[in-house]
Structure formats: structure tokens, C-alpha cells
Amino acid sequence: MISIDKLAYVSELRKVNPMEKFMFSILTMILCISLNNIVYSVLVVLFMAAITIFKGKIPAKSYGELILIPLVFLVIGIVTIAINTVGDSKEILFSFHIFNIKLGCTKTSFLMASKIFFKALASVSCLYFLALTTPVFEILTVLRKFKAPKLFVELMGLVYRFIFVLLDTANMIFISQNSRLGYSKISTGYNSLGKLVTSLFISSYKRSQDIYTAMESRCYDGEINLIEDNFKISYRNIFIIIIVEVILVTISLSKNIFGGII
């Protein structure tokens, strides 16, 4: 997770106006959710991956590892949608029995699960594009310009930073335990895991207090003020964003090409 922040700073799209990247990402995600079209979702997934990897110069391996994280949860989620109790229907693709209950997948449930899967994956790819090309403090700056509540913006920034504090602490404790063969056996592993959680809570709380004390010593009054970079508005980029969105929507809604099935 820490690599997300690092990748955002080394991205070739780092110097692009964050407002433009934010609007492009959010607009694409809103269209993806509202259209509920598999073709559009697939196009968004491919386009966002391509622009993040080839234009942003993010390593394909790193992007693939990151996309696998939500992919696991999505697969588990759509299985429960695609497979449910079925009766005698011609739409059944496959079925099986558990005790006296007949479970199966119909064409309707499969299509619904597919739409949800690709729509969710496309939304995640939009957010990954934003996260992997824009540092968090620039995203917070954009939210401030949109007049988002100050409390929400500050909490978002602090929680994001404290996540890394938590992960760093957990990693150090795990390395220390593993070097002492704390996970050599299953029983020993469970015991070490319990101690890790306990130590993690105490250590993280202490470190958070130390960070808060350091912030207060620097005159923290509830608002984190950062030096903002001056980005120029690129009308060329805005025009490209509009063209890309129009092309994607046109292709996805073209019944002549896709027969209006999806």
C-alpha cells in the first residue's frame, strides 16, 4: 500500500493539473455507474489501465498486483449474485443440489453479476488512475476547491497518513516475530498473531499521540495548511477528456455494433 504514494510521485502524469485528473476520473466513474453497460465498463477498465501504465509510466507488475486486491473481493461477491436458488427454468446455465436445495446460475443472474463485476472493476480502475497519478495532498487540495467540509478533508488526510503508520508498525513487529520463528508452526503462529494485534494497538496509539504532539508543537489548530503548486489549466486536456468520454459512451451505446444485448 505504501507503494501507491511512491508511484504517484514518480508518475509521468504527476505534473498534470490535479483538477483535470480528478474530474476525468470522477466523471468516468459516474458515467460507468449510471450507464450500467458492460461494454462501457470493459472499455473503461482497458483505457484506464493503458493510460496509467503507458502514459503514466507505472510498472505493469505493480498495477497488476494492486488490481488483484479488489478483484478477489469482487469475485467472491459476484458468486453469491450469480448463484442462487432456482426452479425449473430454461434459462438455467448450470445447477447443483445441496441437501434438498437446488442452486444454480441463470442467464439473468449471470448477466446481472457480470454487469456488477465490470462496473465495480471499472470504478476501481478510475480511482486507481487518480491515486497512482496524483499525490493525496493534491487530491485534498481539489476537495477544498470544491468546498468540501474542512472536517471531512482533514480527517481524510489524517486517516490516510495513520494507515501507513499502522502498516509500518505491523510490518516491524511481524519481522521481529518471524526472525524468532514466531510463525514456524500453526499454533505458534496464532499465538504470535494475537500478540502482534495487542502490540500493534498499543504501539500505534503511542505513535499517533507522538505525531499529534509534534503537530501541536508546530501550531496545529485543526487545519493542515500545505504549500500548493500552481497548475495551469490545459484546454487541450479538457478537450481530450470530453472527446474520450463521448467516444466511450457512443461505442458502448451503439446497438448496431453490439446488438443491444449488453
UniProtKB/TrEMBL annotation:
This is Cobalt ABC transporter, inner membrane subunit CbiQ. The keyword Cell wall biogenesis/degradation does not apply. Its main location: membrane. GO terms for biological process: cobalt ion transport. It is found in: Cell membrane. Pfam families: CbiQ. Keywords: Cell membrane, Membrane, Transmembrane, Transmembrane helix. The chain crosses the membrane at residues 22-54, 66-86, 116-143, 155-175, 238-258. It is a multi-pass membrane protein. Signal peptide: none annotated. GO terms for cellular component: ATP-binding cassette (ABC) transporter complex. InterPro entries: ABC/ECF_trnsptr_transmembrane (IPR003339), Cobalt_transport_CbiQ (IPR052770), ECF_CbiQ (IPR012809).
